[in-house]
Specification:
Mean pLDDT: 94
Order of helices and strands: HHHHHHHHH
Distance between the termini: 37 Å
Largest sheet: none
């Protein structure tokens, strides 16, 4: 291989994180871990993974995308459904009606710059989930959004996460 060919195939160097917020604010990190543990309760694991991945896509959190995609794959989620999630509106046939209601609600709660969660989106979610399930889903969506904000603001580095480690 020539020097020019080598340069074309070189990857960019990893960025460095801005700071290690978990180390510098351990009580907040531990509280987030507890919240994440509670957020999992009452939400089907496959749905939980889809919500985490979709919110992370919307928030451009590369660290969380890496982590939650790997977790979903390790839990048996298909590559196809993960890949299609960013284009779910054109790929509805990969998801159940309940999953679509959760994905729509995830988008509405995550992207609040347009105002509030639209009544029709909330109504579809309320029709797909029992009230307790819906409350837990909202907790899960809110929690991943908080994680995303930590990841994006501190520039956590993707690529090193191993499920179950």
């Amino acid at each position: 291989m020539t020097t020019d060919e080598l340069r074309e195939n070189e990857r960019h160097a990893e960025h460095t994180p801005r700071l290690d917020w978990a180390k510098l604010a351990p009580d907040a990190y531990k509280a987030m871990i507890r919240l994440d543990t509670v957020a999992r309760q009452g939400v089907a694991p496959a749905l939980f993974h889809l919500v985490k991945i979709r919110a992370s896509q919307l928030n451009h959190c590369a660290f969380c995308l890496d982590m939650h995609s790997k977790d979903a794959l390790a839990a048996g989620e298909s590559v196809e459904r993960i890949i299609q999630l960013d284009a779910w509106q054109e790929s509805r046939h990969f998801y159940t009606a309940k999953e679509i209601a959760a994905i729509e609600l995830t988008e509405a709660i995550t992207v609040l710059t347009d105002g509030f969660v639209p009544d029709e989106v909330y109504a579809r979610a309320a029709g797909a989930f029992e009230e307790t399930e819906l409350a837990r889903l909202i907790v899960a969506i809110t929690t991943i959004n908080a994680w995303n904000r930590f990841g994006v603001s501190t520039r956590m580095v993707p690529g090193h996460y191993t499920p179950g480690a």
